[in-house]
Every structure is written in C-alpha cells, then in structure tokens.
C-alpha cells in the first residue's frame, strides 16, 4: 500500500471522526431536520456513527503499517529508526494547537479552561483529556510508537504461526481493556487512575497496531491486488469491492458501534479500498484531507464542544453542519500548520546512523 493510499485513508478517517463527534448524541440529532432515516426509523445521521466510530482503529492500523514500512527501509539503509522524534513532533503539534485554542477556550468556556497548572500539564501530556476528548488516544499511541522498535523486532523475528498465536492474547487484552476502561470515568480519577486508564488504552490500540504491522510485513494488500488484477479487469474488481463494502457497512449499521467488532471490519475494508481503482478527483480529495488529518483531529473537538457549542446545530441539516465543521477545522489547520511547519522541520531532522 503506497503512501498516497495511506494518506487517502487518513482523509476518510478524519472526515468520519468529525461526523462521529457531531452526531453521536441522539438528543441533539433529534432536534435536526433529519430528512433521511434508517430502516428502523432512526435518523441516519445518528446511525452513521456506527460506521464513523471505526476512525481510530483505521488510524492505528495505518500507524502500525507505516512504521513497519519505515522499519524495513531503515534496515535496508543500515540506520536506526528515531521514533522519539516522531513522538516529539506529535507533541509539538499538540502544543502548537493548544497555544491557539487555550485562549479561545477561556473566552468561550472559562469554567473548564480556567484550570490549575497541574491539570493543564496533565492535558498537555495527554494523560488527561478534559480539555479535548478527541485526544484520548494520543498518549497511548505515542507510547506504542516509542515501543515500536521492540514490537517490530518481535513480529519480524516470528514465523507466521507464532504471529497468529501472538494475536490471540493481544486480542484478549484488547477485549479486557475495552470492558475495563468503559467502566471508569477519567474525569473523576486521580493521577494513578489516569495512568491505569492510559495503560488500558495502550492494550486497546495494540491489537490494531500489530495487525497493521503484519499486513505490511507480509504484503497482504499488495498480494491481493496483484492476484486480482492478474485475473480480472478493474471494472469487475471495483464492482465486487464496492458491493462487498456496501454489505459490510450495512451489517455494521445493523449490529452496533462496539469497539470489539471494529478490527474485523477495518481489516477487510482497508484492503477493499486499496485494491480499487478510484476516480482521480476522489484520490486527490481524500489525500488532501489526509495531509491535514493530524491538525483536524487535534482541532475540531474545540469547535464542537467549546466554541460553537450547540449553536452549530441551529444550521439544522446534518450535512451542512458537517461541512461547516470540516471547513473551519481545515482553515484552522492551515493557520496552525503555518506556525508548526518550521518546528516540525527542526524536530524531524534525522541523520542516518550506519550500523557497523
């Protein structure tokens, strides 16, 4: 899977995340002009959250996939990966966003943002996410990135059977962590409780991260594409993939939004997207949003909950509301990106280290 396809999938994921955070509340969505309903009479805008809630597993899968590709390239070039630079770059991005939006938060939601230094520090590390709920997986993902060297070496040194066996306890950890973290309120937990919650969240992400690494290691998507294109035309591949994806998404709409079922859908839907030949305009559009996905992830929640509040729902039509949020998040991404770009270049500067 090439870099462009990965970026497109990130673009789809961030657009899904914005929809999820706008319409996950049934009470708010019930007040909108819902002109489209699901077969059971529920507003489609709300039901769509069952699909959009797969956005984080998509990100984590792509993160594991991308780090595996980078690892292979680093080994081939005889250099070590500097994952601490990736993490520092991510946090520099977070802190740049915080500098812009903390004053806005004080203006629009002073009760929440007028907090003590210690609480602000917990938010700036990602240990606590009271100022922006969308940051909940930042610290766990950062820790996974720092540990990725060991995870990658473990996976790449194992045989196929051992890899599959390895995934069984990891999935059990994932399921157990999902149940455990769902019963804890992070807003009412002390520092020790926040540490426990973030450890559980690491286990929640680990399964998809390792799945992404394994897909990259064994070139599963590339092999699938090669096998299909050698036997069938792109027209037939596109129709089959589109119909399969439509059936899967309809099933997902019917069975719920539980995180326990996300991985299986993600591991099928991503290859289906990758093997298709899409219109050039669609690739360009999704890739464009993919380039802004990190900033939009870090930014959009401020608008949804702390700046716009319920006022954005006065626009009444879900698609219009979503487009407005996408637009303001995108404009904000350009502003933040202008300030962050030189910082990123400084942080991500890497010199190859030749192994001896």
Keywords:
356 residues, mainly alpha, 17 helices, 0% strand, globular, disordered C terminus, transferase, Acyl_transf_3_dom
* Count of distinct structural domains: 1
Q: Indicate the low-confidence ranges by residue numbers.
A: 350-356
- Secondary structure tally, helices: 17
Strand proportion, as a percent range, falls in under 5%
> How large is the radius of gyration?
21 Å
Let me know the largest β-sheet: none
Task: Assign the structural class, choosing from mainly alpha, mainly beta, alpha/beta, alpha+beta, or little secondary structure.
Answer: mainly alpha
Order of H and E elements: HHHHHHHHHHHHHHHHH
What this model shows, in words?
The chain is mostly helical. The protein has helices at residues 3-23, 26-29, 44-47, 49-52, 55-77, 83-108, 110-113, 117-125, 138-156, 160-182, 191-217, 220-231, 234-255, 262-275, 280-291, 293-307, 318-347. It has one domain. α6 (83-108) crosses α17 (318-347) and α10 runs antiparallel to α11. The model is unreliable at 350-356 (pLDDT under 50).
Helix and strand topology:
Blueprint: H1 3-23, H2 26-29, H3 44-47, H4 49-52, H5 55-77, H6 83-108, H7 110-113, H8 117-125, H9 138-156, H10 160-182, H11 191-217, H12 220-231, H13 234-255, H14 262-275, H15 280-291, H16 293-307, H17 318-347
Helix pairs in contact: 1-5, 1-15, 1-16, 1-17, 5-9, 5-11, 6-9, 6-16, 6-17, 9-11, 10-11, 13-14, 16-17
């Amino acid at each position: 899977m090439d870099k462009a396809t990965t970026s497109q999938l990130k673009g789809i994921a961030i657009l899904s995340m914005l929809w999820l955070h706008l319409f996950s509340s049934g009470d708010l969505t019930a007040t909108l002009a819902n002109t489209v309903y699901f077969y059971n009479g529920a507003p489609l805008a709300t039901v769509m959250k069952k699909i959009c809630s797969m956005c984080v597993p998509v990100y984590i899968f792509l993160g594991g996939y991308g780090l595996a590709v980078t690892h292979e390239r680093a080994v081939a070039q005889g250099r070590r990966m500097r994952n601490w630079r990736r993490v520092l770059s991510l946090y520099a991005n977070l802190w740049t966003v915080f500098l812009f939006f903390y004053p806005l938060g004080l203006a629009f939601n002073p009760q929440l943002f007028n907090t003590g230094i210690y609480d602000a520090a917990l938010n700036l590390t990602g240990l606590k996410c009271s100022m922006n709920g969308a940051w909940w997986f930042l610290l766990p993902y950062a820790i996974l990135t720092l540990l990725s060297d060991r995870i990658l070496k473990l996976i790449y040194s194992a045989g196929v059977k051992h890899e599959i066996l390895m995934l069984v306890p990891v999935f059990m950890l994932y399921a157990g962590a999902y149940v455990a973290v769902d019963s804890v309120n992070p807003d009412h937990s002390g520092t020790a409780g926040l540490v426990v919650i973030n450890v559980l969240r690491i286990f929640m992400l680990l399964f998809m991260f390792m799945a992404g690494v394994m897909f990259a290691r064994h070139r599963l998507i590339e092999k699938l594409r090669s096998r299909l294109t050698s036997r069938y035309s792109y027209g037939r591949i596109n129709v089959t993939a589109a119909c399969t994806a439509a059936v899967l998404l309809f099933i997902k709409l019917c069975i719920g939004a539980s995180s326990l079922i996300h991985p299986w859908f993600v591991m099928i839907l991503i290859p289906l997207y990758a093997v298709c030949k899409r219109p050039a305009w669609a690739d360009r559009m999704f890739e464009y949003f993919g380039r802004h996905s990190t900033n939009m992830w870090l930014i959009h929640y401020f608008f949804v909950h702390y700046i716009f509040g319920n006022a954005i729902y006065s626009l009444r039509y879900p698609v219009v509301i979503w487009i407005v949020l996408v637009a303001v998040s995108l404009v904000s991404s350009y502003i933040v990106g202008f300030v962050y770009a030189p910082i990123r270049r400084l942080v991500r500067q890497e010199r190859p280290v030749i192994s001896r």
